[in-house]
Amino acid sequence: MSLRLYDTAARAVREFTPLRAGQASVYVCGLTVQGPPHVGHVRSALAFDVLRRWLAHSGLEVTYVRNVTDIDDKILAKAEAAGVPWWAWAYTNELAVTRAYDVLGVLPPTYEPRATGHVPDMVELMQRLVERGHAYAVDGDVYFDVRSFPGYGALTGQKLEDLQPAADTGTEERKRDPRDFALWKAHKPGEPGTASWATPWGRGRPGWHLECSAMAGRYLGPEFDIHGGGLDLRFPHHENEQAQSRAAGDGFARYWLHNGWVTLGGEKMSKSLGNTALVDEVVQRVRPVELRYYLVTPHYRSTIEFTDAALAEAGAAYRRLESFVKRAAERVGASVGVVGQVDDGGKAEPAPDFTAAMDDDLGTPAAVAVVHEVVREGNTALAEGDDDAVAGALGSVRAMLGVLGLDPLDPHWTAAGADDGLARATDGLVALALEQRQAARARKDYAAADAIRDRLAALGVQVEDTPQGPRWELSR
Description:
By secondary structure, this protein is of the alpha/beta class. The chain contains 15 helices and 15 strands. The strands form 5 sheets. Strands 4-3-9-10 form a 4-stranded parallel β-sheet, with helices on both faces. A 4-stranded antiparallel β-sheet has the order 5-6-7-8. Strands 12-11-13 form a 3-stranded mixed β-sheet, with helices on one face.
């Protein structure tokens, strides 16, 4: 492979060489389901969805694991405040997260484990750490001894003596070192009994960091290719994951990838800051495919400032691509570019510059620029009536947009969010109006024809006259 990825641990771009030839193993930290997801949350899912698609396009069989953290302090607190069981609160928000992923075209993971379903794996990992002298129990709590592992801090390039105490409030007197972090939290008075599990050290629940190490090991083995997540997870979460897994004898992740933040008003989008844009609300204002375009076009490691103006600009840019694909498909056939195939049996491939951009640490800004350039060439071919050039451009554009999850003719987008009955009714009514317009033009009643077109435009239906007849699309 010629793919190069920025490895956080190496602090450099590295050639990607899979652990096993022809395969790629990826673990991405999913969400803690304490509430419905905002745009900042799904940015990570989209970034690694593009990575997964590119790995698959490059010929690799991808095993993709994305977990669900369905038990933690915030879930317990919010469920108590709402007066519902913690597991009901978690599941309701898990459904909201899944709905957001689905509406934005994120491919389902190969496996999607829940933390609460893997307590035996966590207990086994803690036992290994205790036996190796890297963990210790105190009154039902189990802590990782950071001083016992010389490599602690290597992922983020920090020295142990410079680190602040771990954020386990009220437990400092129990620890050997204030920077030791909780692997397991003892059950506390007042907490629901259903939020605890039996272990050799007493009943309790897992610490956040322990969960991902256990689940990654269960589904991908002691060593795997790529671990991904948001930039804010580098420390302490990923640092702690790496330390506990390697202290237990596992190789763990060979590459670490982190996506940048989505900011609002210059600050990281965060529920704790109250500056969020919920996905469910944003997709009521813009089409989901346009939100996806907005979030995957910038480089995955860059920061995105979320504004309505930028979102509108992205939507307009995507509609230019969409318009070409639909017009070209009407001209040369919608089968061109389907699943990467063209009518002559050859394979429709991305443009070489697109491939080069994607192989350079998933360089989506340059890759999307290539798509727009090919679309410009395709529009010229449409205007000149060069159907062979149109077919070639259409196949290439669909191949490239497919990698980005943005192919307008993908069934996910043609049916996304649309009620089939309503869509059929809309199509029929517009077709009837266009027939009336054509009849008016045939009898040279151009005033009536223009009036129909203007009325459709006022309703958001844009009509374009082509040599093949009128075509229409909804405007935003």
